[in-house]
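Q: What would this complex look like in 3D?
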Amino acid sequence: MKILTIDDSKLALLQVERVIKDLVPNAEVIKTQDPHKGVEIAKTQHVEIGFVIVDYNMEAMTGIDVIDAILPCFKATQLSLLTANTQFAIKNEAEKRGIHFLSKDGLKEQLENILKKILVGTA
Amino acid sequence: MILTEIQADIIKELFNRGVGKAAVILSEMLSSQIILSVPQLVQGTSHDISDGLTETEIMGIKQKFDGVYHGEAMLLYGHRSCLEFIGSLLGYQEIPGEFGYFERETLSEFGNIILSSCLCEFENALGCKLSTSTPLVVSGQFPKDFLFAENFSSQDLLSLNMNFSLSNTSFTGKISLVLNPNDLKDMALRLDAYLERILAA
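A: Here is my prediction, written as structure tokens for the whole assembly.
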């Protein structure tokens, strides 16, 4: 399964990749720090991409802008917003779209359940 | 810049996480969304820190941190913005004309929550201990009334900066952490060690 991660922080991308590789060792993780490029990858490879993780606080586009741009190509449950800033208003934006909301704290535990469901095709 | 690209990335991300966590607490206190900018790491003089502050009369708090690393943290607002912010925080119907004891205490607590959250993030990631001084509420000009003497004339300040605003007001403010350039060599080593731990976990 291909998993796309979009975050302007290289540290965050490496952490997410580490967690994904622990949970799904054979996953192919596509990483980009450029949200525009991330949108392009998501749109052109949406058939092969099983899950997308998007950071919220980025300069060029917010995570919500990215999600809105790619949402028509995916099921909402294949998309997630990742942030350390878990304010209600941001969480609410994720809930309104039916996507997953992930905190940067305890990411592995949160992702484990989601990826399990995607792998067995129940998400 | 003494730090490598990945070290600078890590330090900005830690700052981002610290402020982000504080924003969760503060947004609940305010019943309002706190909108944060992307963190910036700036090397330059004290005037580079004031970039984005439009009012000449600045209100805010300053607080020193010590331990393995030494530096100072500041919350900076234009005077009018600060009055508006405090009014919103305390649920006033009208913007107060001046700051009384209670308003200053509130401002101080607000800053303390942000700084504690940031320093906690650095402590956990870098495996170091940091302590903070009592926050000082300051009204005056930036930088002369805000930066502590040892930083005021430095030509080579390194600072982490993030702008913040409230969704339901025109208020804007700035969070700034000024780092001591002498600490960067050790900090770089700890940032590398942190990355190694992340990748090996």
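A: To summarize the key features: Helices of chain A lie at 10-23, 35-44, 63-70, 88-97, 107-119. Residues 10-23 of chain A form the longest helix (14 residues).
Q: Very helpful, thank you.
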